[in-house]
Design goal:
By secondary structure, the protein is mostly helical. It has helices spanning 3-18, 23-30, 34-42, 49-58, 63-67, 76-88, 92-105. It is 71% helix and 0% strand. It is elongated, with a radius of gyration of 16 Å.
Length: 106
Amino acid sequence: MKPAQQALGLKIRRIREARKLTQEQVAERVDISLKHMGHIERGTANPTFKTLLALAGALDTPLPDLINYGDFSLSDRELRECVIRLMDDMDTDKLRTVMIFCEALS
């Protein structure tokens, strides 16, 4: 399970609960199964962009707010592990681009 998926799932669950909606209600609005909704909230499923758009609509939340989970606390170690996993499958050109961004941020 990836920390980013966990954080996204947690954010979706918190927003849903704040809106006093059940998983079943949101799943129905998004046109996904209740089981898949549960997997998304637990961070064991990676929703498609189409599903994220539908979730944002069902939760009456702008998509950027939905996917910005920087306000959730992940440890430095978890964040580093996530970044490393993302870079594992990158080719040399993409890794160079990541390096340039990292240098610009530091």
